[in-house]
Specification:
This protein has 207 residues and is mainly alpha-helical. It has helices spanning 24-33, 79-90, 93-101, 110-123, 128-135, 141-144, 150-153, 158-164, 168-183, and strands at residues 2-7, 10-15, 35-37, 43-45. The strands form 2 sheets. It has a two-stranded antiparallel ribbon.
């Protein structure tokens, strides 16, 4: 993970975090660490529960599972949503939206609905209808946000932005402050990208 910084020699990339790499020799060492040789010299993978160890039938710490009756149900996305929620909290937006919006009574706090919309834009941008019908049920956000009923509130999510518009300037000031606190940034002017905004029209000649 790197960040671009300005230097006297021009823009340069500075390493923030390095997790290492898995090259051929490293992969071989990892594979060797999960394999053993039996008495005949044949390689086999270690078992999680060795078969030669017998557990008492009445041991309360042992749960027996019928493998042929195990099935996977309701698989949900977790990693990207968890990262989005952590970034949301790191930016202090959970507290900001709660103070700005949650005074208005709602089945699900408006601050939670705002978080759902923002995390969706980060993970899988889509319409409000797509969020409600497809994306949100496939994620673990109901557990992360502790809002089991958030899905039923997504339909009214447009009201979040309509009602929040008067707080736009305060939000910009909040993000500017958090940006400076998180990265130690000092600046006189802060510009943000608006690549999703465009204008269509007709004219006789395009310069």
């Amino acid at each position: 993970m790197v960040e671009t910084v300005r230097t006297v020699d021009g823009p340069r990339q500075r390493t923030l975090c390095y997790l290492g790499e898995l090259n051929g020799s490293a992969q071989a060492r990892w594979l060797k660490s999960v394999e053993v040789f039996n008495e005949q010299g044949e390689a086999e993978q270690l078992k999680l529960f060795p078969s030669h160890i017998k557990f008492p039938d009445d041991d309360p710490q042992v749960a027996r599972v019928l493998v042929n009756r195990v099935r996977v149900e309701r698989t949900r996305q977790f990693g990207a949503c968890f990262l989005g929620w952590e970034l949301w909290k790191r930016l202090g937006l959970d507290g900001f939206f709660a103070q700005a919006m949650d005074e208005e009574a709602a089945e699900v706090p408006w601050s939670r609905v705002a978080a759902v919309l923002a995390i969706n834009r980060l993970c899988a941008p889509g319409s409000e209808l797509a969020i409600e019908e497809r994306w949100y049920p496939s994620t673990a956000l109901d557990d992360l946000l502790e809002s089991k009923k958030a899905r039923s509130t997504i339909r009214a999510c447009i009201a979040v932005w309509t009602g929040f518009w008067p707080h736009k300037t305060k939000l910009e000031q909040h993000l500017k402050q958090r940006y400076g606190e998180l990265f130690g940034a000092e600046f006189d002017v802060l510009l943000y990208d608006l690549t999703s905004t465009y204008v269509e029209g007709r004219q006789k000649r395009t310069p």
